[in-house]
Amino acid sequence: MSPAQKASFVARIRDAMPGLHRSEKRLAETILNFPGQLASYTATELARIAGVSNATVTRFVRKIGYASFEEARQAVREEQTAGTALFRVAGEGAQAGGQLARHAAQSQLNVEQTLAPLDEAEIDALVAAMASARRLWLVGFRAGQPFARYLGWQVLQVRSDVTVLPRDGETLAESLAAIEPADCVILFALRRPPRLLDALAAELARSGAAVAVLGDVAQLSALPARWHLPCATAGSGALFNHAGVMALCGMLASRMIERTGATGRRRLSAIEDLHDSLGEI
């Protein structure tokens, strides 16, 4: 695949801009305002909105490297699915009313669709691995990073040796080299993940550690892991809704606290004693 074919839809337009005619530039500027809208327009509708001819639309999509308008529209749909926020922003005035109700309903739906399919025995097995592992590793990038940090922080209350990756100032390799078969790893795979996701999952599998993958990427079930925990993240607006991801993290942390029993309570008690003596809280 050539570099031009790898370029994103917006990058193609911006690269082509210097060589476009006046009407084509007007069309390009119209599309760049809300590129995601292209997925719902016909070529005739887009031409009318931009104030250009259908022939201009045809020339334009060919100049930016697509064989047809439909191929360009499919590229936009793929970028919407991948999670690009720019492609999920609606035009001005879209969905103006009832935003709070839509967001609340979508949040509730995502929580239900994330938690309802879970198997109790599988969750118990994962929590047991989290509790008994030599070291627990939480790995997350971009949207997955705050969830990895949240789950790691909650679990740290009842067990030591919890590490969140990637760590500041370190390469992944410097940390991955320390993962052993007696460890447990939870990998957050949320859209849009870094390109190394597949290679990282393969490396974690080779480490022999007990691995769980949690997220919404299309290839989640294909990633090598002992546990796969799909999360519903459909959004009512431009961004994905991660209410289901947070609910799953909260559930795992709560089950972990219950699982560690008296040992966990002793650690919690020691932490509270230190809070008092240091006056931190």
TrEMBL record:
GO terms for molecular function: carbohydrate derivative binding; DNA binding; DNA-binding transcription factor activity. Residues 7-83 form the HTH rpiR-type domain. GO terms for biological process: carbohydrate derivative metabolic process. Signal peptide: none annotated. Pfam families: HTH_6, SIS. InterPro entries: Homeodomain-like_sf, HTH_RpiR, RpiR-like, SIS_dom, SIS_dom_sf, WH-like_DNA-bd_sf. PANTHER family: GLUCOKINASE, RPIR-FAMILY TRANSCRIPTIONAL REGULATOR. This is MurR/RpiR family transcriptional regulator. It comes from Roseicyclus persicicus.
